[in-house]
Amino acid sequence: MEHSGGRNGYSARWHATFSTRTPSHLIAATAAALADPTPVPRYEAEIPSATSPRSV
């Protein structure tokens, strides 16, 4: 199973690959972490200006 993310035009990307030998609890934990709606703290310099709340 393969997953990737990030919007086109942005350098923020992630990629994960799970094989058939990956324990299901690790896949579940990864899915839960990715689906968690809690905001991720970031330094202002790490936020692209196009998506910065200050650019609105």
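(ticket continues) Second input and output from the same batch:
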Amino acid sequence: MKKQAVHVSRRIIAGTATMLGLGLLLSPSYSMASAPTPATLADCDGENLATTLQASADPDIDRQARAYWLDRGLISWPGMAQEGRYRLYHSSTASLVVRQGKRPKGAEEILSLSPRKEPPPPPLAERFRFIGGGVELSLAAQDRARVPDLLRGQLLLVREDAQGRVEAFTALQHPGALDDLYADAAQASDLGPIIDAEATSLKLWAPTARAVSACLFDGGEGKATALHALQEDARTGIWSWRAPRDLSGRYYVYLVDVYVPGTGVVRNRVTDPYSIGLGADSRRSYLADLDAPALKPAGWDDAPRPDRVKAQTDMVVYELHVRDFSIGDASVPAKHRGKYLAFAESESDGMRHLRGLSQAGLTDVHLLPVFDIATIPERGCETPQVPAAAPDSDAQQAAVMALAARDCFNWGYDPYHFNAPEGSYASDAGDGARRIVEFRQMVMALNRIGLRVGMDVVYNHTSASGQHPHSVLDRIVPGYYQRLDADGRVERSTCCDNTATEHRMMARLMIDSAELWTRHYRIDSFRFDLMGHQPRAAMEALQRRVDAVAGKPVQLIGEGWNFGEVADGARFVQASQASLNGSGIGTFSDRARDALRGGGPADNGEALVAEQGWLNGLIYAPNAAADPARPREDLLKAADMVRVGLAGTLRDYRLTAYDGQERTLAGIDYKGQPAGYASAPAEVVNYADNHDNQTLFDINAFKLPRDTPAADRARVQALGMAIVAFSQGVAYFHAGIETLRSKSLDRNSYDSGDWFNRLDWTYRENFFGTGLPPASDNAASWPLMRPLLADASIRPRPEDIAFARDAFRDLLRIRASSRLFRLESAAEVQRRLRFPDSGPAQNPLVMAGHLDGEGLDDAGFREILYLVNVSPQAQTLTLDGHAGKRYVLHPVHRTAGAADARPREQARYDAADGSFSVPARTAVVYVVE
């Protein structure tokens, strides 16, 4: 075909033409000569994951993308004036060369754009309200049909003078156009691998790709045995291939020919973002039908599931890492330690521990990320040889960190494939079936002891983007799945490469993924990492989907922190603390957490010691670094914030505050925000520690006076657990809180290896004083840590660990004994919960909460009164209106095997005047039966 110059409407076509789209579908302006070489079987193998087919003539010119496609016909360029001549330059061969003051070169097409004065339609104005003012440019109606092909190549928006010389130029961000052009893709049939007895299908959304092929492999190793071209549906941008046979057990990858800004036209070899299984180290996707009998453990279809959570507030959650659970458990066979199959060892020390918690009232185990993780080698991971060294030595962390990139440990907040189980926890990461079967065996084992299974999911970021080897989404549709800043660079406010769940197909991926885990792995609840970076609308759509799949409510909770480029609703209504009220989706509350612990999670250096909290001595037991001039008012404020947590952080709950004023919780200040933000108890998650930041034991090691006895440290830990157990809302506990878990003061153990993340189910050790924690996050505080780690008196004895363990079980029993601790509505909390010792005359060292059970099903008791004394000395409260009542100790306290003898032996209630004597550092619960 000869080169032709075709003039259509306001389009100017020049330069070398090229093939666009699939097969031989050409416009008159494109020539066969410019088409990249078709993929061959040889492209399926080798170490290089990308081959540049046509290199960019100037790799730097489109690295910045300051203009936005709002939809297929409308472009906005913030900061630019209405006046001027604007043109869109296109090259399918990445040949554009643009220089200031000169005419652009290398274009095959030039489209003239018309500035428009009227604002964009309201939906677009709302979606793109964050981009700021500038010029809005419209494509001619006849040119809009060309946009799908244009988006497959290099595009630059240029403002030029009357002679065509460049005054300014930019690349464009295209998600708005893709969401408009391919809106039907969001509702199209299943993506990924689909297998039944008669056929195998593959479907991939890749609307900017020029060609897509699938490489097939007979196994996880060896060369490709077949290559098949996928065909594109122009309406949805979905490429598909179908074979009339069942290919289960084989593996595949895609070859995607796509334009990559800054590189050129590239052939990417990439796994399927909808992979349901993988080979070792995620190099190949696995073909399987998740409903196939071969992928189900014996008894899977008929296995009973726990039915103990009737409402979200019934949840008592235990946050657990798969590897932590068993890697140090000698009662587990060595080959199963750190693996899914450790949970199937029903008589191991760890499973006996979980069974005891379940029997006491624990309802859910939430697993830290168990989808495919980017940074754990699935084969050949190494185990550091940690030297015997002093408790305050830096030798241990040096040994751990020397292998951190190659060891077998990571928290897992670096997602690689959202829909496939992590392979390092399987007995054979190279067998795509094993991780599926063994994950299900783990779920069955936990269900068998009465525990539901929840997942910690991370849809707010990917581990990498661009052409990085761990990038999947961005190597298929460059520039779409990640959230970009005003220059077109990937936002990283979440720590990693942020995703854009406000875009249709990223939202779809998240929702489809949650459905898969619910349907095929019987996940009962989800905990969303940095959920505030996702739109509320997407989360509510996800809620509807998983509930429909499960045929019952699937509980959703997450981190609703408000920060980064989406803060304060800058881009959309967030799934954040302040924006989720009324949704029924729960967010973690930092209100009581910070009041209990003292300071905040970002504290470092001297503040770690000086900023005491309500639990560990604020004002009443100052440590050596405490400010002696700190006012008592700070203690009263902290006590009020603990009450905020006990009342479920409800925005409209009314409390007499420390200054004597009755306020709603929303009217109480928390660091410049309303302390109360939830509309219902289900919308708040209460906790004293979790995987982030120092454990409760470690933060108390900093803040309690150094001479605090080890037994009292265990008591302080129990008081923190008590406040969470007594609070309205979801109760959430970090694994090991009940065994005084220490990470040797590590503030961020995400990559600190097994050494700093250990658990001991024999209850002999808590691992405090096992070396200075890793320098990367802790070195600035090492001078403060050394004397603490070297102080043997801080380290608990086995009897201290046993006390905390048993106290936790008693607290679970108390919470489970009455629905009064698990009220479902804000109105019920306001009606039934009172704080009889609040206000200016309060004793801030004793937290008193009264629950009225009159007329409530499952209340268990007519009245409950809990008292939590954080003081090192016994305290007496006289409570108006409580004289003459028939209070007795809660039945759990009255049993001979109660963990804490102090309530039975030392607590006193005088019915004559309504006074209560509460032993030092003790939680006491009274009931009227």
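Agent notes: Residues 1-33 have pLDDT under 50 and may be disordered. The first strand starts at residue 11 and ends at 13. Closing as not reproducible unless the customer responds.
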